[in-house]
Specification:
The chain is an alpha+beta fold. It has a single domain, classed as 2-Layer Sandwich (NE0471 N-terminal domain-like). 20% of the residues lie in helices and 31% in strands. It contains three helices and six strands; from the N terminus they run E-E-E-H-H-E-E-H-E. Strands 1-2-3-6 form a four-stranded antiparallel sheet, covered by helices on one side. The protein has a two-stranded antiparallel sheet with strand order 4-5. The longest helix is centred in the C-terminal third of the chain and has 10 residues, at 72-81. The model has no long low-confidence stretch (mean pLDDT 93).
């Protein structure tokens, strides 16, 4: 059985990157340039840095005010394959 992955923290960074902390303790920074290379009414507004910075979490998924969201498990898989994830530091 696969564990439901949520994002616990999201922080927008320059150049359309997101800093993400996942519910399984993994964390990393991901460049969304691959997404913004596409066109569409939901993606086009995210090219504006002011809009991109308005990201928030809704039900554990990065979401923007225009209603666009990203799947946490898909982001985690993409980041794992790219070697962008590290385990959370022990406190």
């Amino acid at each position: 059985m696969q564990t439901l992955i949520k994002i616990l923290e999201v922080k927008p960074l320059p150049d359309h990157r997101l800093s993400l902390v996942f519910s399984d303790g993994a964390q990393g920074v991901h460049d969304l340039g691959w997404l913004l290379a596409n066109a569409g009414p939901m993606i086009d507004p995210l090219r504006d840095p002011a809009m991109f910075e308005r990201v928030f979490l809704e039900h554990g998924a990065p979401t923007w005010p225009n209603g666009f969201d990203l799947s946490p498990w898909s982001l985690r898989r993409r980041m794992q394959e790219a070697g962008e994830l590290v385990a959370a530091a022990a406190e």
